[in-house]
From TrEMBL:
Annotated stretches, region: Disordered: 153-202
Protein name, as recorded: Tn3 transposase DDE domain-containing protein
Domain of life the protein comes from: Bacteria
Listed Polar residues bias regions: 190-202
Organism for this UniProt entry: Klebsiella pneumoniae
GO MF terms held by the record: transposase activity
Length: 202
């Protein structure tokens, strides 16, 4: 009974907007975000570590990751299940999705690429192939020895990442932060976990 009384008192305080860092508005509960304060010693370590990292193009990094994991093999053609013949073209289309650039702008900003070439990869870029490729990446992370430093697997940092899966780029200013599948895209759950155990393919 005492616990119930305490909880009811907390609810009453919330209705009166007396809770710290939380207020009720017409649209619902609004919670003050935590300060992203980074200790000076941690920032110094971040800067020092950044200087040790090689300076490479993001496209080269994507190719390296694919060489390590083989995630691109999951982007198979919808009709015959064949793997992409041009890996560079496929990864360019995926990169366009990842940075919300879209195929049109990706083609315009990449010498030698055209919208027609990139759109030819669309039959292999679907929600299920994204899920399989992401599972491949997560499993590779789990098997890496360094993953043991992240914990015992009891926690995860989960989010949804938006991927386009067909169609031309959205109009400027159109939100892409969706949590459901739509005609031209989907949100894939991203859940890096503190474990070395393997995850099943989605």
């Amino acid at each position: 009974m005492q616990l119930l009384d305490e909880q009811l008192a907390t609810v009453t305080r919330g209705q009166d907007n007396e809770l710290p860092d939380a207020i009720l508005t017409e649209s619902g509960l609004k919670i003050t975000p935590l300060d992203a304060a980074v200790p000076d010693r941690a920032q110094a370590l971040i800067d020092q570590t950044s200087q040790l990292l090689p300076r490479i193009k993001i496209t080269e990094l994507l190719m390296d990751v694919d060489d390590w994991t083989g995630f691109s093999r999951h982007f198979t053609h919808l009709k015959d299940g064949a793997e992409a013949k041009d890996r560079t073209l496929l990864l360019s289309a995926i990169l366009g999705d990842a940075i919300n650039l879209g195929l049109t702008k990706m083609a315009e900003s990449s010498p030698g690429l055209t919208y027609a070439k990139l759109s030819g990869c669309k039959p292999g870029i679907r929600d299920e192939t994204y899920s399989a490729a992401l599972a491949e990446l997560v499993n590779h992370q789990y098997r890496h020895a360094f993953a043991a430093h992240w914990g015992d697997g009891t926690t995860s940092s989960s989010d949804g990442q938006r991927f386009r899966a067909g169609g031309r780029a959205r109009a400027p200013g159109t939100s892409t932060r969706s949590t459901v599948a739509s005609r031209d895209g989907c949100s894939i759950p991203i859940s890096p976990t503190s474990t070395r155990r393997s995850a099943p393919a989605w």
